[in-house]
Structure formats: structure tokens, C-alpha cells
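Final report, section 2: Outcomes. Of the targets proposed, LacI family transcriptional regulator is the one most frequently requested by collaborating groups, and we therefore present its record in full.
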Amino acid sequence: MVTIKQIADLCGVSRGTVDRVLNNRGNVKPEKRELILQMAKKLNYTPNPAGKALAAQKSNPVVGILLPSKGIHFFDDVIDSLEKSEKKYEPYGMRVIWQTVRGYDVEEQCRILNELKPKINALIVNPINDPRFVSKLNELIAAGIFVVTINNDVEQADTHYYVGSNYINGGRTMGALLKMIGPDEAHIGVILGSLKLLGHRHRLQGLQESINNIPAYSIIEVIEDNDDNICSYDKTKNMLTAHPEINVLTILSSGGSYGTCRAAISMTDRNFLILVFDTIPTTREMMKSGIIRAAIYQHPHQQGQKAMQLVFDYLVNGIIPERNHYIMNNEIRILENI
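The predicted structure is given below as C-alpha cells.
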């Protein structure tokens, strides 16, 4: 096996210089960099996993994970993928500090960021798009912490990386789906988790853009359910009672989708076209029962895997991501392909 020392001797440079080039960190003169890369390629150099593991263990990389996942089954698949990646990277000494919360309390999550800051080298977070939270996030970035936002992003944050779907495209996709299978006149009730989340706002924006040119389509009311089924049931029931003209329900986040569907079922004298995001277990049940017609899927397993890979590559291999956004496709799922 070719070693860094051998490449250094052949190129007439130090082992440190070779290490910086092969791990893409630090400044090396272009001509030396090219020489080292050509020599490594000529000798078919491959990194020594044991050596990388030992180096990583010495640096004690720690990743903080903050997710508002309590009560939201969408995150089950994200967490499953993150946990599998955690076990995969354990031999390299990478350790994870988990923080899961319920809802979108800005003060609570800012407090958690404060607690995590002195303990971590990287952060994977589903963020609240609030100036206070963004300010805390920027403090971490300024302190040298590598930040990846997952499934939701924020505005006006410093350099960080996003893994998730394109929410505006998701809203437009739902609007296009509605135009394909919806009634001639659509009086729409919109249910989403929280307008504090940039993604939920963007989905609403995309939906509105998609149907704006159709006079017979109108959004009657938008409600926030905090991604909670009990809250969603109560608010949806009130909305449907107050607006008997509503015949379409678009659920832009899955946390309260079951509550919304139960409220729709309770209106026994009315029928609704219901479109949702994510294929969580209760959504699949409702699709099999004919309550939900279609769902838009955003690849939660891939989101978790990619976020942890970016963090591992940066902390252990010194690899800076090629781009700032890693976007998963919005895919339409129906009963036949769930």
C-alpha cells in the first residue's frame, strides 16, 4: 500500500503538505498541488481507513442534531437514516448528541443551541425561520461549527449547507396535481404546520402560484396546526363548519394530517379531495381507505443519509461540500405505488 510518506519523498515535499493536498485543506502552491495529485494517481494511492479512524478519534468530532420530531412521524425515517449513519461512522470516533423537541418554540430551541455550542464541531438542524434562531445559528457558524440544515432552511444565515426538498416546487407540484384530478371548482382549505418554517411558507407560495390563473380555484382559509393531530382536528373541524363551500383540503405538512382527515371524515354529509405531503403510516392507511387521493414524497431516508455524510466528510476527511444545496425530488405517490 502506498503511503503519504512515499508520495512526499517522491515529490520532495513534507508529509504535511501531501496530507493537506489529499484532504483538500490548507494552502499549497498550485504547481506542488498538481505534482502531488498526479503522483497519487500514478501510484493508485488510496487512504488508509485505519489511519483515518485513528486521526478522527484523536480529534473527537462531535455532531449535534436538533429536530422538532416529537409527534411528527415524517421524522421517523429521517432519524432512522441518521442513526444508521451514526453507527457506520462510530469507528472513526464521530459522536452524536441528540436533541429532539416538540413544536416550534423559538426560545427553547435557542436555549438548546446555546447548550450545544461548546460541545460540538458540527450541527444538523431543522431550523425555525425566526431572526432570533437565525442569529444563534450564525453565532455557531462564526465559531467554526459546520452547519447543515435538514428538511427546512432559513433566510439570511451565514454560509451553511441545506439538504431537503424544494418547497416552492412542492407547492407547485400539489397545485398541478389538483388541476389534473380536482373538481371544476375548487374551494380550498390549506393546513400547514407553522408559518415560522420557511418551507411551509414556500409550499403555500408554490400552491398559490400554481392556481392563481384559474378563476374557479380559490384558497378559502389557511390554518396552522403546529404539526399536532389534536390541534389539527379541532382547527379543521372549525374551518369546515365555518366554510361549507370547502371541497378540497391540501395538507402542506404531515404532522397533523391524521387529525385533519379525521375531521373531514366526521363531516358525514360532505366529500373532500384530500392531498398531502409524505407517506407516513397513517397517510398510507387513509390512502387505502380512499380518504387521501395522493401524497407528495420528499425522500426522508436520503435526507438523513446525505446530511450525515456531508458532516462526516467535512469533519473526518476535510472535504468541503461541492455546493450549498442538496435537493431531493418531489415525487407524487398514489395508492398503487406507496
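The longest helix spans residues 300-317.
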